[in-house]
Amino acid sequence: MEEVVKEGTRICSYPFLSAASRYVEESGVTLDDLISSAVFERARLRGKERIIEAIKNGVVRKPVIISNAQAEMELLSYPFARILVSCIGDEYLVRRYALSEAKAAHEELLASTGSSSDIIYEMSEEFGIRVDFLRLPHEHAQMQVQMAFVDYLRFTSNLRDKRWKLVNRGLEKGHVKLGKSEFVRIIQEAIYERIKKDLPLDIPADICEAISGYTVDIKKELEEKRKKFGDAGFESGSGFLVKDPSCFPPCISYILSNLKEGVNVPHSARFAVTAFLLNMGLNENEIIEIYKNSPDFDEDRTRYQVEHIAGDMGGVRYTAPSCGTMRTYGNCAGNDDMCEKVAHPLSYYKLKLKKKKKNEKI
Ligand code: SF4
To answer: Measuring CA to CA, which residue among 108, 100, 88, 111 is closest to residue 10?
Structure first.
């Protein structure tokens, strides 16, 4: 029995694997059962909870599984969550949900010991990553893997930190060596791509209608999150509205909307938006909050970078880049009438704000 529960736990911890889909198919549970049978109410509620956890915390919690029945509900909650996400059909939610599932699996993989090499090996097979597990000189040494650089490039294209750049890794005969935690981070990328790839699913309208009761709270959470991320404006620490996002230049609005939607933006764009918002008077914590949706968000690293740009480490505070620099790095998002009159995004903001206030007085 213990073995059965253990296997159930393993499958429901990684519900995006083909073994998990096979298990669901072979269980004989139909789509009709899943969306309407009272027997599966727990799975439906857990499916809804998965998405709310993703919106609120950015990671889907993994419960302690104590029975096979619980493992089955946990496993079935995953396809139901996918159906809910698809019915809501929001691009930001798709990304946020996929990332939160991938992060949960990443944490689980990192925490796993003993049989961890088996599951890591299974994951590499699943995602078609050619990898060799290296023999180590002594038994307590950290596990190391070696992967073909082509696969390495495929899965690290979204990772912005410079430690992932190929030039910063030892490349030996077309292979890159990685520690276990680094390889698991790459697996997180593969999981994210897998989960996101088919979403939103093409769910018939009558099914979406039948389960609409489960989407109400999710939509509310989504709305709350949106408000917090700028649709209602940026507030300073004192709660006093000091910036007017409607006057932000197109380049900054574009970068912010990408960050809000969980799109991985290039380093130069992150620098530009951080410097711009610091110049606007936002504090470090408010800016870090904006980055929390990024796929590779790491609070310590982000804080370090923001504090560096703010000059908190004894350096100079950077000014936001000029329009010329923005153009050079491909970060100039457009040319509206106001853009024609300025050479700097900060001048754009000041000019537009002035014009807005003047119009309000008329
Ligand atoms: S012209 Fe300047 S202000 Fe306008 S979008 Fe480009 S970089 Fe931003």
So the answer is: 108
Query: What is the mean predicted confidence (pLDDT) over 154-163?
Result: 77
Of 5, 152, 126, nearest in space to 65 by CA: 5
Predicted TM-score of the model (pTM): 0.69
> In this structure, what token pair is assigned to residue 205?
């309208």
Cα–Cα distance measured from residue 221 to residue 358, given in angstroms and rounded to the nearest whole number: 37
User: Does ligand 1 have an atom closer than 6 angstroms to the CB of 345?
Assistant: yes
Inter-CA distances, 49 with 55, 77, 97, 214, 356, Å: 10, 9, 11, 10, 43
CA distance 262 to 195: 15
Return d(Cα 291, Cα 303) in angstroms, integer: 10
Ligand 1, atom 3, residue with closest C-alpha: 345
* Neighbour count for residue 289 (Cβ, 10 Å): 16
Tokens of 109: 């993989």
CA distances, 167 to each of 148, 230, 348 (Å): 15, 37, 38
The pLDDT of residue 1 is above 80: no
| Distances in whole angstroms, Cα of residue 175 to Cα of each of 30, 149, 163 | 45, 5, 16
CA of 276 to the centre of ligand 1 (A): 12
From 101-110, 153-162, 218-227, 267-276, the region with the lowest mean pLDDT: 153-162
Nearest CA among 129, 180, 132 for reference residue 152: 129
Q: Whose CA is nearest to atom 8 of ligand 1?
A: 251
Residue 137 has pLDDT above 70, yes or no: no
Q: Is the peptide bond before 345 cis (omega within 30 degrees of 0)?
A: no
Element at 303 (helix H, strand E)? helix 299-310
